[in-house]
Amino acid sequence: MKKRGSSVGDYYFVWKGERIFTGARDKQEAQQFQAVWVAQKLKQRDRQNVTFTNATFTDLLRLVRADYERKGRRTVDSLDSRLKLLEAELGAIRALDFGPAHIDYFIEAREEVGLRPASINRYLETIRRALNLGQRRRWVVEPSYVEMLPVNNERNEDLSPAEYRELSSILREPVKLMFVIAYHIGWRAAPIKSLEWPQVDIEGGVIHAPENQPGKKVGDAPIYLDLRRELLQARFRRDQANPNCPWVCHRNGKPVSTYRAEWERARALIGRPDLHFHDLRGVAETNMVEWGLPEARARAIIGHRDSKMLERYKRTSDRRTREAGEILERFHEGLAEAAKKPKPSN
Question: Three-class SS of residue 142?
């Protein structure tokens, strides 16, 4: 530790040939500054000195997290849940040793617990990103190629009116309100969670779409039937307990971060573990078209770009038509059987 000047100068120390001034005129204070400064430098050096010989898959996952933060991605919360599982399953594996066998193991483990291919692919996308970032740092030597699982994008989920009423009675707020909105207007979970009261004109019967929508967009939607009733009740509860809360769907005045646990609980109670919240988009669009709304208007509300999206849900509508035919067939068969029976004599 040296002092600049003879009497009033501040102390400095030398680090790799460079003078580092502490800004302190007291020697003890300068020494404390030096200890903290050097410790931080050593910590940074240790992080930078991770090489492909000792890097683990956990180190690769940290690169993915840092990449998301640097780019300002909006899905950091969902990424964290994936990173947590990936680290638990694969984190201890050396990056240099990571290969197709580990990916196959992970896929088989997820399939055993009933995860669908589309959901598994989200994890595989994270693995692929981790390996690509690792290659840039030479932590992974071999070229990495992660093959996605084939996914059938054609939605064929349905929700009967009875199941809708049952779910409405089981779900707790705010997920119940999210469910009713999604069932009637087919919006995705993201715009529903960010929906604010200035967008909702209950008296005018319109929910206005957000002006600045990142990514996939939705359109203005009508307010009708029990959607109007649920929104009126939600507004009353807000006025009583959280008058300054701007969000339509909230938990104690704070925006909804996740709804999955409540959704999974309710769908299991009605015996529909196959039903996903996103499937409500197809249910809403099918209902709109069957009720006579023009397809173009239905697509505009829900946010589908063209008629190809509607084709994903066509089989649901076809199934309903076949079911109606079966009901009518049984009805007419009953009439025919009744006509064959001899009439009682007077």
Answer: coil
What number does CATH give the domain 161-320?
A: 1.10.443.10
CA-CA distance, 90 to 103, in Å (whole number)?
A: 9
Structural tokens at position 300: 């505009």
Number of continuous H segments (helices) and E segments (strands) in the chain: 14, 8
Q: How many CB atoms lie within 10 A of CB 238?
A: 18
Residue type, 222: P
Residue whose pair of structure tokens reads 């940290």 in the numeric block: 62
Look at the alpha carbons of 236, 242, 244, 248 in this order and tell me if their dihedral is positive or negative: negative
- pTM value is 0.57
Place of tokens 């009033």: 8
Convert the pLDDT of each residue in 226-241 to its tens digit.
999 999 999 999 999 9
Beta strand pairing call for 221-222 and 250-251: unpaired
Nearest-angstrom CA–CA distance, 39 and 46:
11
Whether residue 25 has pLDDT greater than 60: yes
Q: Quick count: other Cβ atoms within 10 Å of Cβ 204?
A: 9
Q: How far is CA 288 from the centre of its chain?
A: 25
Backbone dihedral angles phi then psi of residue 3, each to the nearest 5 degrees: -115, 130
Residue matched to tokens 């066998």? 101
**Crossing angle (nearest 10°) for helices 314-340 and 279-290:** 60
